[in-house]
Known about the structure:
The structure holds two protein chains of two kinds.
Chain A: E1 4-8, H1 18-27, E2 37-41, E3 49-53, H2 62-66, E4 72-74, E5 80-82, H3 92-96, H4 132-138, H5 150-154, E6 160-164, H6 165-179, H7 188-191
Antiparallel strand pairs in A: 1-6, 2-3, 4-5
Chain B: H1 2-41, H2 43-69, E1 75-76, H3 90-124, E2 136-138, H4 142-171, H5 173-210, H6 218-225, H7 243-267, H8 275-306, H9 310-316, E3 318-320, H10 321-327, H11 329-335, H12 348-351
Amino acid sequence: MARMKFLCDAERCIECNGCVTACKNEHEVPWGVNRRRVVTLDDGVPGEKSISVACMHCTDAPCAAVCPVDCFYTSDDGIVLHDKDLCIGCGYCFYACPFGAPQFPQKEAFGVRGKMDKCTFCAGGPEEDNSAAEEEKYGRNRVAEGKLPLCAEMCSTKALLAGDGDMVADIYRERITKRGGRPETWGWDTAYKGDS
Amino acid sequence: MRVKENKGKRRNRLYVALAAIALGLLLAMALPLTGYVLHSAGLVQVAQAQEEEDEELVNQRAEYWRAVRGGVEGYSAVSGPEAGVLIQGGGQAWRETRNGPVSFYGASFIIAVLVAIAVKHLVRGRDTLDVRTGRTIARWPAFERALHWYVAILFIILAITGLSLMFGRAMLIPLMGKEGFAVWAQLAKPVHDYLSLPFAAGLILTLLIYMRKMFLQSHDFAWLKSVGGLIGDRHPPSGFFNAGEKIFFWILFFGGIALTVSGFFMLFPNLGTERDAMRLWNIVHSSTGMLLIAVSLGHIYLGSFGVEGALEGMVTGSVDEGFAQEHHKLWYDEVKGGAPAPESAPAPDATSAAPT
């Protein structure tokens, strides 16, 4: 079985925010919610690097560990998904997540959080694949159609890779052997610690 | 002469050959030295510096990503608090603290108090009145009773909803199933949120009203030494509040402040409180919440089943004179115009109020 992972190649990312836009458009994500964001470090100075980050679908997911209603589950592909019907909008997953992935639409006055929204690796939720209910709550389920996440598919420099962790790592390793330099599988030691 | 000339030519040739050999040897020795020459000229130094720079770059890169893991903030076109932080490490510590010691010691403390109450009740039984005179004495004015029950009912609702969010996953999901518990949790969370403000207002008012009477006095230490009569038959005399009630008050005072402040920040995530602070407030809130629940269980027991005559005071406003003499001797004497007690008497109109 595949173990789905994201990998962002910091030497290639050009901070075009195409992945962010692709994601928002594909899933009709509500205003104020961004499942993916691009962060630029040392912006405008030599050594500037950009990274596209979303939910990394951690092996021992901290969000799932602290959820009071236990609404998270991991798919057979290692994708961390959640059930919005159970979510109470407490924000604990956001406190625990190393990557700042969980997002909350503002529901009412006083900043009350709505139901949590995050990257699904384009794999929807617990509803029937690509049903209207699933699309409404979680966006498109591309994985069920045999496709990979749109952010990575649309990445103009192929900096963002998504797919089986071994294959993604092979592609990246090949790049490193050709261009030289040290590998930097950004975020992997945080997300996939103890993973084989 | 020719021979001489030939000899001279031959000698010249020999010199040329020797010179050539000497030059060859010199060059052979000197050429390898060019490395040193180049080195001192600076060319090799440049190459070395390049190497050093590469090494530095490698270290810089390691530093770079270490800083990223440490939570260094970059720029992001996506707006929002901490959007520029790629990795933040505090979540893991919070997860371990909340799911570990906070849950464990919190639950243990609540259970320990329940066990202590059960043991006390089984061993000593109900603390019954020696004498029930039938005459009553006013103790709690209507406003204070209303405030007490207002705060008490809100506290119990907040305790149940709060404990549901803390331990529901471990204790209620196995009973109710995820869907069943989610229905309750989706009600419990907003109830906890919305009732918190009226509760905080009532709690703060309570703390302000009684604060003046709650400072420990000399006779309180004698009471504490006998643990309120648990050691020996009869506890030393106390004023309007005994030392146990005073200590309960101060736990409520400091715990209540911590609970209110931490709850306030968690209630309004739109104030821009960052995750580090939110996690700290969460730990403060859950710890103090469980502490107050535990001590309140003791208060509830002593105020109802534990001590005969206590509950009727908070229900009707008046207590039996027997209760007053037995548990609050100094206050009783003061009200009856006996020896002046160090604590001030309640309002004069309260003393003449009849039980309802």
